[in-house]
Amino acid sequence: MTPPSPSPPSLDPARLPRHVAIIMDGNGRWARQRGYPRVRGHAAGAESARAIIREARRLGIGYLTLYAFSEENWQRPAREIRTLMALLKRYLRQELREMQENGIAFNAIGNLARLPADVQEELRRTREATQGGTGMVLTLALSYGGRSEILQALQALAREVQAGRLTPEEIDAARFAGALYTAGLPDPDLLIRTSGEYRLSNFLLWQSAYTELYFTDTYWPDFREAEFHRALRDYQRRDRRFGLTQEQVKSGALARMQGAPPR
Ligand code: FPP
Predict the structure, then answer these.
(1) Which domain holds residue 84?
(2) What is the pLDDT of residues 4-47, one digit of tens each?
(3) Could you tell me if the CB of 181 is within 6 A of ligand 1?
(4) 239 in catalytic set
(5) Which band of pLDDT confidence, cut at 50, 70 and 90, is reported for residue 256?
(6) Which end of the chain, N or C, is less surrounded by CB atoms within 10 Å?
């Protein structure tokens, strides 16, 4: 496995976000602007995903989560959904070798049972074949909705209570987080949304409580390394306090609260 390469000089490698989450938006508008069919925008978007995954790995970012298909996206025209699914399957096949060579552990979150059987199978194979990767965890959110994720966690915990294996008082934030699709992933430090929309659109609602948000007008197919660096530089200028005062953060209270050094 290749070690992370140096950051561009303007980035502080010690203060990179541990987990970056991205809402990849604007493929359709990018295509329309050029007189192309929407699906061509998705194909160009897949190229951006490839570039950003590679760059995140190169920089040494530990976790990258991409919102590739929301629960609401099921309402799109059947032809567009079919193309997106085919694109995803092809992408996973094409990228497997590079993921393995670069120590990328692949993961998928969402209501995966709703995906076509062949896509589910490809996801399972990719996950298994990359399981040992220690360089970066790449998570694709597919058929994903934050509210549904919270509801299914709630139902799972309620079943535990009903069965007498858990008391309501034992349900704390850590246990709740452990029942979400993202169990085992740290909360995102930075969430990027492209295409000039300023909302979360049902993405990682619980997990984003203290996440830094970065919005750009750039459409996803045009979001490449330089713009990614801009988002990371912006993040590095933020003052993260998690509800504490600046003095408390300086005195190390945040590190004690989180059991880890402040990031
Ligand atoms: C949003 O653009 C994008 C999507 C719904 C799909 C995202 C998929 C990709 C980037 C390609 C596949 C990704 C991988 C990792 C293989 P939009 O269609 O909502 O754009 P619009 O808002 O301009 O219409």
Answers:
(1) 16-146+185-258
(2) 555 676 899 999 999 999 999 999 999 999 999 999 999 999 99
(3) no
(4) no
(5) low
(6) N
Contact 135, 95 (CB under 8 A): no
**212 Cβ contact partners less than 8 Å away, ≥ 6 residues apart:** 17, 189, 190, 191, 235, 238, 240
pTM score of the predicted model: 0.92
Which residue among the candidates 25, 27, 107, 187 is catalytic per the annotation?
Answer: 25
Whether residue 80 is contained in a domain is answered as yes
Q: Considering its fold, how many domains does the chain have in total?
A: 1
Helix (H) or strand (E) holding 69: strand 63-70
Q: What's the pLDDT tens digit per position in 64-78?
A: 999 999 999 999 999
51: domain CATH number is 3.40.1180.10
Closest of 22, 23, 24, 4 to residue 14, by C-alpha:
4
